[in-house]
Amino acid sequence: MNAFPIWVYVAVAAAIALAAFAVGQIASGAGVMVVAIAAPMWVVYSVRLQRKAGAGR
Predict the structure, then answer these.
(1) Is 2 in contact with 50 (CB distance < 8 Å)?
(2) How far apart are CA 23 and CA 21, in angstroms?
(3) 46 touches 10 (CB < 8 A)
(4) Residue 4's pLDDT is what?
(5) Which residues are listed as membrane-spanning (predicted)?
(6) Could you give the CA distance from residue 19 to residue 13 in angstroms, rounded to a whole number?
(7) What is the 3-state secondary structure of the chain?
(8) CA distance 17 to 32
(9) pLDDT tens digits along 7-24
């Protein structure tokens, strides 16, 4: 059992991509930094939440 339904993961991925695109339009190459920071943060948060819920055992 996941801590979130699958649509939440899709929505977060889309939000990260949209934020990266928007930042990339303002400053060339800066969108990569958004993804490089936001994606691992989401992964860590999701894994911690799943372990707390007992789904990672």
Answers:
(1) yes
(2) 6
(3) no
(4) 86
(5) 29-47
(6) 10
(7) CCCCCHHHHHHHHHHHHHHHHHHHHHCCCHHHHHHHHHHHHHHHHHHHHHHHHCCCC
(8) 10
(9) 999 999 999 999 999 999
What tokens does 21 get? 């695109």
Cα angle 27, 31, 36; round to 5:
140
For tokens 């992964």, the residue is 43
pLDDT for the residue numbered 2: 60
CA distances from 9 to 5, 12, 21, 30 (A): 7, 5, 18, 23
Q: Per the structure block, which two tokens stand in for 44? A: 């860590």
> Does the structure show a pLDDT above 90 at 56?
no
Residue with tokens 């996941």: 2
More confidently predicted of 54 and 49: 49
